[in-house]
Amino acid sequence: MTSLPSCTVEFRARYAETDQMGIVYHANYLPWCEIGRTELIRRLWRSYAHLEAEGVMLAVTEANLRYHAPARYDDLIRVVTTLSQARSRGVSFDYLIQRVDGETTTRLVSARTDLIAIDRAGATVRIPPHVLDAFRHGKPMEQS
């Protein structure tokens, strides 16, 4: 069995992302998911900007987050993003957001987003076959 395509990014929680208590505000985890998602798309194919240049945008249709523990200002954050489904008109991503402290990690949030492919007018479209192929195989595919 082949593993699902995934990638890991790390960064520090910024002061601007925290509340008065120094805890990362709950809504800031969604942009962290976006960081992981756009990086995974880049590693599988090309940048998300290239997808938009082909006339396809990915609109979030559902987002689910489960909070396990808080992140705090200056924590080292690791986002592990996995492409869990790639369909002709949509994709799904799973996320594990962790705090990294040396060799120890703490699960902060587990999340999932579902996205649908649309054109600039908002109509549902198919993901181009060469992009879908790259997503499904988990490796960059050459374009003709």
What is the element layout, followed by pairings?
Blueprint: E1 6-12, H1 29-44, H2 48-53, E2 57-67, E3 76-86, E4 90-101, E5 104-118, H3 129-137
Antiparallel strand pairs: 1-3, 2-5, 3-4, 4-5
If you had to describe this structure to a student in words, what would you say it looks like?
The chain is of the alpha+beta class and about 140 residues long. It has one domain: Thiol Ester Dehydrase, Chain A. Helix content is about 20%, strand content about 40%. It has helices at about 30-45, 50-55, 130-135; strands at about 5-10, 55-65, 75-85, 90-100, 105-120. Strands 1-3-4-5-2 form a 5-stranded antiparallel β-sheet. The radius of gyration is 16 Å and the shape is elongated.
Task: Provide a concise account of the structure shown.
By secondary structure, the protein is of the alpha+beta class. It has three helices and five strands; from the N terminus they run E-H-H-E-E-E-E-H.
